[in-house]
Design goal:
Blueprint: E1 2-3, E2 10-11, E3 15-17, E4 24-26, H1 44-52, H2 56-65, H3 71-91, H4 103-107, H5 111-145, H6 166-176, H7 183-189, H8 193-215, H9 219-249
Antiparallel strand pairs: 1-2, 3-4
This protein binds zinc ion.
């Protein structure tokens, strides 16, 4: 089942095909009367631009109407490496001036980089796990007590029923974490603590949006789920980095 990217209502198809002629007719939503998915006609660049701008319609297109296959898992691996490299660069620099582009190539030969990449992967798994548990508990509560104010609204301003779709939520969280890819260009070209905080803020926003689009939870509850998971992971991060260092020393 597809989803209208404008209002979020379900739709059976994105376009119709006239038999024999090969002509396609774009499907319009029966709820909001807009084109169900305008992005099927868009160039990928425009789609990515809307994703970067955190447009809800672009998130709906990717999380509901596009078959992402293994692309998201490959992006997750890149995010792990990007985050691992961020950890490595901060552990191997004494000042901001010490960070130079050549370190990217030097890092690739260092065992410590791969250990920290592994830690980054564990943190991603923990983040996804905690967020899923939080979302499951919250969705059960919202549905049981009928807290309609914590649900997203349809085009007719009716509260949607939140649903816990395990595979979709994992996809949403993998997609929401893709902002971590920005660590790499930030380290190489414009390294500063402030930029990293901006990226973390962006990742929080994209995860919140992805959860809300996928589960029909309000932005408030989605944000709480993300912040809860991020807090636990941040608190455990120094200890996990310490274990990685201990393994390296060993
Ligand atoms: Zn619609």
């Amino acid at each position: 089942m597809y989803v209208c990217v404008e209002c979020g209502e379900e739709s059976k198809k994105l376009y119709s095909t006239f038999s024999g002629s090969g002509i396609l007719k774009i499907q319009h939503c029966g709820n909001c009367d807009e084109v169900v998915d305008k992005y099927i006609e868009f160039d990928v660049t425009l789609l990515l631009l809307d994703v970067v701008l955190l447009r809800v319609s672009a998130f709906r297109h990717i999380l509901h109407n596009r078959d992402t296959g293994v692309v998201l898992w490959k992006l997750a691996l890149l995010c792990m490496f990007s985050d691992g490299y961020r950890k490595w660069i901060f552990r191997n620099s004494t000042s901001e001036d010490d960070i130079v582009e050549e370190k990217v190539f030097h890092a690739a030969t260092q065992l410590r980089l791969y250990l920290l990449t592994l830690v980054a992967g564990l943190e991603l798994v923990m983040f996804i796990g905690i967020t899923l548990v939080f979302c499951f508990a919250v969705i059960e509560c919202v549905n049981y007590f009928h807290f309609e104010r914590y649900c997203t609204r349809s085009h007719c301003d009716e509260a949607r029923t939140p649903k816990f779709n395990f595979p979709k939520l994992i996809q949403a969280l993998l997609f929401g974490n893709c902002g971590k890819l920005l660590f790499l260009p930030t380290i190489v070209w414009a390294q500063s603590d402030r930029n990293f905080y901006y990226i973390i803020l962006y990742v929080v926003c994209s995860n919140t949006l992805a959860i809300s689009v996928t589960s029909h939870l309000s932005y408030t509850l989605s944000l709480l789920a993300v912040l809860a998971a991020l807090t636990v992971v941040t608190l455990l991060e120094p200890r996990m980095n310490h274990y990685a260092e201990a393994c390296y020393e060993f």
